[in-house]
Specification:
Layout lengths: L2 H18 L9 H12 L7 H13 L7 E2 L1 H4 L9 E4 L2 E6 L1 E8 L2 E2 H8 L8 H11 L3 H6 L8 E5 L2 E5 L13 E6 L2 E6 L10 H11 L6 E5 L12 H9 L4 E5 L6 H13 L2 E4 L7 E11 L3 E11 L28 E2 L4 H5 L4 H12 L1
Parallel strand pairs: 9-10, 10-11, 11-12, 12-15
Antiparallel strand pairs: 1-14, 2-3, 3-4, 4-5, 4-6, 6-7, 8-9, 13-14
Length: 367
């Protein structure tokens, strides 16, 4: 795609976004956005492909909608290095035998890297930014496009030394089941990782298997949504009905990866079951955009955008509020917070201990 065609394509992307998004300029005025867009388009001459990709990502980030973003995967073959990075809040750790705190990336202090990267990532609340960074801090193309390193390798400086990584990661379909359950001393523990029916094992059958396992209802349910980043929000309904009909006290474990339809699972449990929320803040706020549509220009510029707005919180803007439920689910506006925060520490990670699950079960036993 030559430069003129590229400019036309980028203009067409944002023209279509204006028509398709439910409220594109909710956080930035159209005039301010167009100023930023024209400034970027006038600067394309001499930029590398990675710089252009990141520039478009930066324009999308101005919309402050985690469901509306430029698809880095399809613009160019996406290449991330083969390593594992985790975070505990704002601290990031590289696994090399054990998890080691990252101090620098390609010679740049990690605080500086994050401060720059956050302007090119679409997010609404900080927990989701941390989740996205777990991927982008491994991307040579992304870091290169921001002027934070070359294209061949990434050098991580940890508390234990420097690690140069050039090998590319191989992405395979996760073998983890979307949902599974186990009994924890009379407590039903449900690990619900994805709001999608498994092939040959629909979620409704999964719930029937839970009913068959328990001759009498369990004393409580711990629903683990920490890895649930979305899918079809209605799939969980049979479990909600079972828990409600049997008056089973429900606890929800959530975190920064709890997102999109995973948020609906949190909301349903809070609204219909008066569930106690445990863990860390979720990846979306109480008011958010969603239900994604996908599009592309000439098979080159891939993007997605929100077509619905969801409001689960009290608001002074009652005249424009769009109710999803008959009553407010949350009595505050902002990131969805746990009722009881359950922390994490790197020592537990290094020992292979799921301290949040352990502490959640202990809390339930003691109530």
């Amino acid at each position: 795609m030559n430069l003129d065609k590229l400019k036309e394509g980028i203009e067409e992307v944002f023209s279509r976004l204006e028509k398709g998004h439910i409220n594109l300029y909710h956080d930035i005025s159209k005039e301010q956005f167009n100023f930023e867009k024209e400034k970027f388009l006038s600067s394309l001459e001499g930029k590398s492909r990675n710089e252009i990709v990141c520039g478009v990502m930066g324009l999308f980030a101005l919309f402050k909608d985690a469901h509306t973003n430029f698809n880095f995967f399809n613009f160019k073959k996406h290449d991330v290095v083969d390593c594992e990075i985790i975070n505990i809040d704002e601290d990031f750790f590289l696994k090399n035998g054990q998890y080691q705190k990252i101090l620098k990336i390609n010679g740049f202090p990690i605080e500086e890297v994050i401060d720059k990267a956050k302007n090119y990532i679409c997010y609404e609340v900080k927990p989701y930014l941390w989740q996205e960074l777990l991927f982008y801090l491994r991307s040579r193309e992304f870091l290169n496009g921001l002027g934070l390193g070359g294209e061949d390798e990434i050098v991580y400086t940890t508390t234990q030394g420097d690690y140069k990584i050039s090998k590319s990661a191989t992405f395979t379909q996760s073998q983890d089941p979307f949902y599974q359950f186990e009994d924890e001393n009379g407590i039903l523990y449900v690990n619900y990782n994805k709001c999608v029916n498994m092939e040959n094992y629909p979620f409704a059958q999964f719930v029937e298997d839970i009913k068959a396992f328990y001759k009498s209802p369990p004393k409580a349910c711990l629903l683990d949504l920490r890895k649930n980043s979305g899918g079809n929000s209605e799939i969980i309904n049979p479990l909600i009905s079972y828990l409600k009909d049997n008056k089973i006290k429900t606890y929800v474990l959530m975190g920064q990866k709890t997102f999109s339809s995973g948020i609906f699972a949190v909301v349903y449990c809070k609204f219909y079951l008066d569930a106690l929320l445990l863990g860390k803040c979720a990846g979306q706020p109480t008011k958010n955009y969603g239900e994604v549509k996908f599009d592309n220009i000439n098979g080159e510029l891939y993007y997605n955008y929100s077509v619905k707005y969801f409001d689960f919180a009290k608001s002074v803007e009652d005249n424009v509020k769009r109710k999803t439920f008959s009553e407010d689910v949350f009595d505050y506006i902002g990131v969805i917070k746990p009722d009881v925060e359950l922390g994490e520490n790197i020592d537990d990670f290094n020992r292979g201990i799921d301290s949040q699950k352990r502490d959640a079960l202990k809390l339930i036993e003691e109530e």
